[in-house]
Design brief:
Largest sheet: 3 strands, antiparallel
Distance between the termini: 54 Å
Order of helices and strands: HHEEEHH
Strand order of the largest sheet: 1-2-3
Number of helices: 4
Shape: elongated
Strand content: 5-15%
Radius of gyration: 23 Å
């Protein structure tokens, strides 16, 4: 009875680890989306008002934004050829509060993973099988997201 409860607890702990991994990805994606919205508002206000020179900057006139997990990339067209000439990566630097939240999620993730490792060190077959089952269930539940397809 009690040992079965321990095995179920181990399964739930590993599912919790997969939840924390997903939470980290979702929070980072939220920060990127928030950054893009803020930049779009800035660019639209500059576009409506027009800069002092009356000309748009390269990024405003020729820029296309592309999301790449924690990084925003701006691809600008070459004025001569009209094709995409260079990639200028822009780093998204979180505020201190956002970084504190990211660090908290990482700390929780690290702690749970460490406890799972210690549980595996019991070398009990049932505990190890429970870890594997929890990993499967956690990945099934929290890794169910769109898969990015890129043309090669």
């Amino acid at each position: 009875g009690k040992f079965a409860g321990s095995c179920i607890g181990v399964i739930c702990l590993v599912i919790c680890l997969e939840f924390l991994r997903r939470l980290q990805r979702e929070y980072d994606a939220y920060l990127v989306k928030q950054h893009r919205v803020r930049n779009a508002q800035i660019h639209s206000s500059v576009h409506e008002k027009g800069p002092d020179t009356g000309h748009l900057t390269d990024i405003e006139a020729n820029g296309m934004e592309k999301i790449d997990s924690n990084r925003i990339q701006v691809m600008s067209k070459s004025p001569e050829s009209g094709s995409v000439a260079s990639l200028k990566p822009q780093r998204l630097v979180p505020t201190i509060f956002q970084q504190a939240i990211r660090a908290l999620i990482h700390m929780l993730q690290f702690s749970v993973a460490y406890f799972i490792m210690l549980l595996a060190m019991y070398y009990n077959g049932y505990i190890i099988i429970s870890i594997i089952i929890g990993s499967y269930l956690g990945a099934f539940i929290f890794s169910w997201e769109g898969i990015k397809i890129t043309d090669a």
